[in-house]
Amino acid sequence: MTAKNLQDTTTLNNGVKMPWLGLGVFKVEEGPELVNAVKTAIKHGYRSIDTAAIYGNEEGVGKGIQEGLKEASISREDLFVTSKVWNEDLGYESTLAAYETSLKKLGLDYLDLYLIHWPVEGKYKDAWRALETLYKEGRVKAIGVSNFQVHHLEDLMKDAEIKPVINQVELHPRLTQKELKAFSQDNNIQLEAWSPLMQGQLLDNEVLKEIAAKHNKSVAQVIVRWDLQNGVMTIPKSTKEHRIVENVDLFDFELTQEELEVIDGLNQNHRVGPDPDNFDF
């Protein structure tokens, strides 16, 4: 299924609908630029906003959401807001407390999606129980994970009552995550890409530039389109209005099967972020 417009959603394994595309705010510091980026995204039709406790910017995101909702004359229910519990807060009670802190900073009554940010060994199962509690109590619409490999997911699901709806991972043409993608599809877990543009490192790639020129599009647009046509959700980050608009101007072209395969062929299993099997934070 490929999204037909920016508000298009997919139905997660618990029946909740989530937009295919959203705004990421990793490394965007608190301040007017952040508030403005969130507000601008909402104005231009984005309905999914992704943040995390460790980004240290939930207050600004919350402010941008409040102002954006007002200016766009839409209700909170029209937005899909995601945040994530940080490693030092993983644990049953500490995760419950971290959720309340995130809500308070964002100025919201609930989150649409709450994720475990990293699979810290010996800690993520207790945190998952906390997420299940929040979900059962109706405090959050959906729960999932981030940066989990296949073996982490298998381990989690051995004891879990509720299956994650999402796994948000680093995914881009240099890291296509084929094995994880196949596992996710088999288990009805939606894959979502962070760093889809490889933190800008792919924007000068000649192969991608050639494909982009053919469609009269930017490299960023081609990559995000590739995600969508592969059934992967994504959250490109930008603070500049023209980029916020450009990143999602993707619904008037389609990549051919051959082009999709050429992009897949760029894979080098190369990460710009930490390795989920080998991190120390």
From TrEMBL:
Substrate binds at residue 117. Residues 32-267 form the NADP-dependent oxidoreductase domain. The record marks 84 as: Lowers pKa of active site Tyr. Keywords: Oxidoreductase. Coiled coil: none annotated. It holds the Pfam family Aldo_ket_red. The active site is at residue 55. GO terms for molecular function: oxidoreductase activity. Belongs to the aldo/keto reductase family. This is Glyoxal reductase. It comes from Rummeliibacillus stabekisii.
